[in-house]
Design a protein that fits this description.
By secondary structure, the protein is mostly beta strands. The protein folds into 2 domains: 29-174, Lipocalin (Beta Barrel), CATH 2.40.128; 181-271, Immunoglobulin-like. The protein is built from 3 helices and 17 strands. The strands form 3 sheets. The chain has an 8-stranded antiparallel β-barrel. The longest helix is centred in the N-terminal third of the chain and has 19 residues, at 2-20. The radius of gyration is 22 Å and the shape is globular. It starts with a helix and ends with a strand. Mean pLDDT is 86; it is low at 4-16 and 180-186.
Length: 274
Amino acid sequence: MKNYSLTLFAVFMIAANAIFAEEPIVKPQILNTTQAAKLDLNGKWSGKRNQYSWDKKTFIESFQYEFDLKQEGNIVTGTSTIMNSNGEYADMQLEGVVIGNKLHFREYEVKGAIRPDGKVWCFKSGELNFAKVGDDIKLVGSTPSFMEVYNYPCSGGETDLKKVDNSTNLSVLVETTPSGEAKVESTLNLNAYPNPFVDNANISYNLTGENSRVKLEVYDISGKFVASLFEGTQNAGNYTYNFNSKNFSSNSGIYIAKMTINDAVYSQQMVQTR
């Protein structure tokens, strides 16, 4: 009887370990520009947004987060919904643009909300990478957040959303990365500073290749062309260009530096404090 009981206990422990064992963490594979350009973004994206502490060293809260997107070319519009564990929520209008392998977006109007006591729902923005995990297409990345007035920053967070109906994108997942694109991206170091900025932002990058065809442009978050800062051929080296927002106007206060090197496209979002 004792041996029989020990056997049952051992079987139970093996089963319990199988049930409660943590699933291995699979790192998302970032898609390339060619793959991202073929994606169908229409429909729902569902997942989580983890909110940072003010020092950005830890996450202090996790929210349910969802996009409902409509795509026309590289322009994206739609709504977002964020909800905390108490059922308090906000529905917001959003707009965005696909540049390279990123979705740049911002929320700009609260359509309906139940607000936590003493708190507000901050508008979220950011540049989300298109990625895949298995057969799933995801939007992942940092999502800074800003108050409705003056664009003052909130604590920000990280977003991870999965395309709910991904059937039209399955063929895209088998495509390979064009040769050379990943190598250029790893050494480009495209950076905008200060960010957020008031009137002026500097856009810098590092080229490693010789005789590269380079185009540096600025767009707003709706996809509207704003300025061309450089177009021509450059050799290896460090380059910096200044963007003065006083010469242009944007209702959103969010600009995007778009960098094209040969056939590869990269981008960096810039937020203006007003």
